[in-house]
């Protein structure tokens, strides 16, 4: 959706694609490890290669390669009859070894009974709703994506691109995990969760090394693409930015330390305990150059973990254990306050000290002026919170659409609060994003799937790790965050095992059909209700005319100095004809270096019925047509056999964007 030169896009895409595709073709195990490793190391590969802009595509190549590798491998295995015939003879040793490494995957359930099926249907509907909301119903005039000016300085393709920043990471991660589970042998001889976790921890270790070098040597080491993070003195590793590092670093550290503690408790091996303590101290040191999200997550989660561990080790009685834990939870706020109060007196340039000072300033006015307290804590988040609540009030039940928040900040006609620094961002936390973009109904549908996933797998304990990080941002907007979030919800520590209660209901004759009906019916109803707002947008050149006050010019690039020419890309364009008589006769010159076998002009009446059709003539400058509009013509439509990139002067359109000759 974002215009990036192919010479910049393909090198990164092909490298990512190869990193995902070929390991998957070689063996299921290494495919998972390489994919998980790539998620936490390849995200800013385009920036590190010195190719700007391509980073916005994130990990499309990696996930596309992995998904295609999985299904290509499984199709070949089925075609070779892996489960129906004996293995090839020793003379075909390479093929035999490959089949042994990759036993054919089987699933006990039809694909439409899979929990993933409904979630993918929901994501598909969200994509279609965005397509119609930002591209309009002008799609009916020809195949391909039509381009309009969604705002005077923003094309509909760029508007759609804002939605894709969340849709692409979410959709590709869900499709990848679905493909892995669908192709997994049943019963499984290899653990999907453990192999992904190995790749995650491997990538995490590389990030720790890079963060360590950035902390000791230079913040600019492997920091291309995160200049704002570097400016405020924060380390990022190879993650998207300091916002991602500030929550991914503590969460993965907690997973690693909890794994070591679990090994120590089972085997009483002191090395694991010592390594866990050293890991805690090392990550705490690295956190000195992380944002405030790191310290909130790190301190709260470790405090809760220490309470649970010590009570498990020293208290036998379950009743006493629960009482002490509950009492400790009530004392935690006081404990945190004392820590912040003490740190606020330090004269250090650390984010933790800055957080402590801001907290003390905010607490002093919290009772009388809560909003002022929030502004003292974080001015940008306070403004984004206000803007988000205004958007929620406008569309409480159905929401404003995926990716609509940054688009609203760019709206020149928007009435309401604006950011003081002109920052374009997503809502300040995940929960507000759900309500703002999906509304109450859409949030219910989204949480319905998440709830079924957690119930099905019995992994709700792992998902608790996300509760605090989701207060600090829309953590699924980047591919690294989306992968970690869905890994914790869908796989976590125990793999894809079902909970006993869900498995019992799954085997009943009525449960699976009921789940299928809800999985398809809920997103379908949401899409139908939400699409009601599209009917007054208009089609073709009248798309959003009531909102913009003018007809659409279907332009790709708005006119700029010094030539002030419109630039058009595509195969089909439609314009409203000027109603002024002398402006309906003359010529149209398409200045272009592109070539097409046929370029034609169609005249349509008010009902968009073709009343005349003629061909353009090719010239040295491009293509030209001259003549007079037939009586009754209200629109003209240009069609090209192949893709064209041409220019028209601004004088070809009147003040309402109607074409004139």
TrEMBL record:
Signal peptide positions are none
The protein's superkingdom reads: Bacteria
Keyword Acetylation in the entry? The reply is no
List the residue ranges forming a coiled coil, or say none. none
Which stretches are transmembrane?
6-23, 30-47, 59-80, 111-134, 159-178, 198-217, 245-264, 271-288, 294-316, 328-346, 430-452, 464-489, 509-529
Keyword terms, alphabetized: Membrane, Transmembrane, Transmembrane helix
Q: Carries keyword Membrane? A: yes
Protein's UniProt name: Ligase
């Amino acid at each position: 959706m974002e215009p990036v030169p192919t010479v910049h896009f393909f090198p990164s895409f092909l490298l990512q694609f190869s990193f995902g595709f070929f390991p998957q073709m070689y063996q299921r195990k290494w495919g998972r490890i390489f994919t998980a490793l790539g998620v936490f190391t390849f995200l800013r590969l385009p920036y590190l290669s010195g190719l700007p802009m391509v980073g916005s595509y994130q990990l499309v190549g990696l996930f596309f390669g992995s998904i295609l590798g999985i299904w290509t491998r499984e199709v070949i295995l089925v075609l070779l009859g892996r489960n129906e015939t004996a293995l090839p003879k020793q003379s075909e040793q390479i093929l035999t070894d490959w089949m042994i490494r990759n036993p054919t995957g089987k699933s006990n359930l039809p694909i439409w009974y899979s929990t993933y099926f409904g979630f993918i249907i929901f994501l598909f509907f969200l994509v279609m709703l965005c397509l119609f909301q930002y591209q309009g119903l002008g799609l009916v005039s020809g195949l391909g994506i039509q381009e309009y000016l969604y705002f005077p300085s923003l094309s509909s393709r760029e508007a759609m691109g804002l939605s894709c920043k969340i849709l692409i990471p979410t959709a590709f991660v869900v499709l990848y995990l679905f493909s892995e589970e669908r192709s997994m042998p049943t019963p499984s001889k290899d653990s999907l969760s453990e192999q992904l976790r190995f790749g995650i921890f491997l990538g995490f270790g590389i990030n720790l090394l890079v963060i360590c070098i950035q902390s000791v040597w230079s913040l600019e080491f492997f920091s291309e693409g995160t200049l704002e993070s570097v400016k405020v003195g924060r380390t990022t590793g190879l993650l998207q930015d300091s916002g991602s590092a500030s929550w991914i670093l503590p969460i993965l550290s907690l997973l690693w330390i909890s794994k070591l503690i679990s090994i120590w408790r089972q085997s009483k091996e002191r090395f694991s305990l010592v390594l866990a303590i050293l890991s805690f101290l090392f990550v705490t040191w690295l956190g000195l150059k992380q944002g405030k999200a790191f310290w909130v997550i790190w301190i709260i989660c470790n405090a809760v973990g220490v309470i649970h561990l010590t009570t498990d080790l020293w208290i036998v009685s379950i009743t006493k254990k629960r009482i002490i834990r509950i009492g400790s939870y009530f004392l935690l706020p006081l404990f945190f306050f004392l820590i912040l109060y003490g740190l606020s007196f330090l004269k250090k340039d650390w984010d933790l000290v800055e957080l402590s000072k801001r907290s003390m300033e905010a607490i002093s006015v919290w009772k009388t002026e809560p909003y002022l307290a929030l502004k003292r804590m974080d001015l940008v988040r306070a403004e984004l919170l206000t803007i988000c609540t205004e958007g929620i009030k406008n569309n409480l039940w159905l929401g404003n659409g995926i990716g609509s928040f940054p688009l609203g900040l760019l709206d020149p006609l928007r009435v309401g609060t604006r950011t003081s620094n002109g920052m374009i961002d997503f809502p300040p936390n995940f929960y507000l994003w759900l309500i703002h973009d999906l509304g109450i109904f859409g949030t219910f549908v989204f949480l319905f799937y998440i709830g079924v996933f957690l119930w099905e797998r019995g992994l709700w304990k792992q998902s608790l790790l996300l509760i605090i990080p989701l207060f600090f941002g829309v953590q699924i907007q980047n591919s690294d965050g989306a992968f970690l979030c869905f890994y914790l919800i869908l796989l976590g520590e125990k793999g894809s095992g079902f909970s006993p209660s869900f498995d019992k209901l799954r085997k009943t004759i009525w449960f699976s059909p009921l789940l299928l009906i809800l999985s398809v019916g809920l997103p379908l109803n949401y899409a139908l209700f939400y699409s009601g707002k599209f009917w007054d947008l208009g089609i073709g050149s009248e798309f959003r005319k009531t909102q913009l006050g003018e007809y659409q010019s279907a332009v790709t690039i708005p006119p700029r100095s010094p030539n002030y020419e419109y630039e058009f890309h595509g195969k089909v364009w439609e314009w409203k004809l000027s109603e002024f008589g002398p402006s309906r006769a003359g010529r149209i010159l398409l200045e272009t270096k592109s070539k097409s076998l046929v370029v034609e002009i169609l005249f349509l009446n008010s009902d968009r019925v073709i009343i005349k059709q003629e061909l353009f003539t090719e010239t040295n400058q491009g293509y030209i047509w001259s003549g007079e509009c037939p009586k009754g013509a209200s629109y003209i439509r240009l069609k090209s056999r192949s893709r064209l990139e041409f220019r028209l002067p601004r004088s070809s359109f009147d003040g309402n964007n109607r074409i004139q000759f």
